[in-house]
Amino acid sequence: MSQSLEARYELPEKVVFCRRCVMSNQRPASIPEFRHTPDRRDARYLHIDEEGVCDACRYAEKKEQIDWESRENELLRLLDRYRREEGRYDCIVPGSGGKDSGYAAHILKYKYGMHPLTVTWPPILYTDYGWRNYRNWIEVGGFDNITFKPNGRVHQLLTKLAIENLLHPFQTFVLGQKNLAPRVALQYKVPLIFYGEPEAEYGNPISETETSLRDKSYYVMSNLSEIYLAGISAPELLEKYKLSLNDLLCYLPADYRELERANIEVHYLGYYLKWTPQEAYYYSVEHTGFSARPFRTEGTYSKYNSIDDKIDDLHYYTTYIKFGLGRASYDASQEIRNKHLTREEGLTLVRRFDGEFPRRYLQDVMDYIGMDSECFLELCNRFRSPHLWKKEGGEWRLRCPVWEAERTE
């Protein structure tokens, strides 16, 4: 009997691909970011049913059956309850001026007559075109904006530690982006927060209409000893790196009890309006001055998804290392569900681009965190899960790439 190979990060030992898109059951879903440690990931993974179809594809199927006129009427009733005419903000739209936040903020203000406050947790390292898109969002789109820039020294430290301990370059951004809007809503007494796509679009097993920001599974300050940032417990961070609780507070979630007392509601606009990323792109180009990258994004075939942060390309490369799923897998799966690609076309694109090394901004990122690129490559090899990777002829190869899985089914 052959011995099974170690599956790290509590990944399923058997790799199974969806028959409709190109995503596998190795994709993490609904991870409480602030609890990450290298050996303990309290996470769930993309579910693939008995017919070989993933939850994200099932949701795409369900979208085609939804009465979108009825859903929009639900939205109108919600907005009518909270619309303010006395000059105060009545909703918050988090974002940094990408296609999705551009679409959401603009349609809420100019079609539905709301008065949004946009809030931005900025990218770790802006790209030139990302910065232009952010400025255009505010100036061309016409929105008030609050941008929260965290302590630079602490941000750099946590980003470096997250890479060293978790191979997770994006953790500090994810935490800030997720937790900023509820804090601003509490401070400014704004009753509604609107995000873009429902998490169900990606197969995450949570409510279509609400994010987990108000979920009681999020720890509050009384549980500080159980909170991990960058793979290190909060008390250890405070002591070892001479930080104060104030240095870490912006990365932690707002207390759900305060959100409930303030009657703050969190909604996905994509629950009420049929959300298609490509259409959001065209809309934002026309109305908020959004522009795509002037070149193809490394690791994929697209030019307009997640382009504002230099560290973004590195993040998707690390998902390829840890989960066997690179940026082309994510992009192609989404476009297959939206019927912009066939699965055969998606397979070709994944085979060609997934796992392409992100060289363009690598040195900028390494300079920012103070790490040698060789050290980063060593970390990548250390974080490869044996059940996903094997070494052949001195090169790392996936044991079960999606295009080979097709031949064995």
Can you identify the CATH class of one domain?
Alpha Beta
Counted beta strands: 11
What does the largest sheet look like?
3 strands, parallel
Low-confidence stretches: 36-42, 209-220
Distance between the termini: 22 Å
The share of residues in extended strands comes to 5-15%
Main sheet: strand order? 3-4-5
Radius of gyration: 21 Å
Number of helices: 17
What quaternary form is this?
Answer: single chain
Secondary-structure-based class equals mainly alpha
What's the pLDDT, averaged over the residues? 90
- Note the run of SSEs as H and E: EEHHEHEHEHHEEEHHHEHHHHHHHEEH
Q: Could you name the CATH topology of one domain?
A: Rossmann fold
What is the helix fraction of residues, given as a range? Answer: 40-55%
Shape: globular
CATH architectural type of one domain: 3-Layer(aba) Sandwich
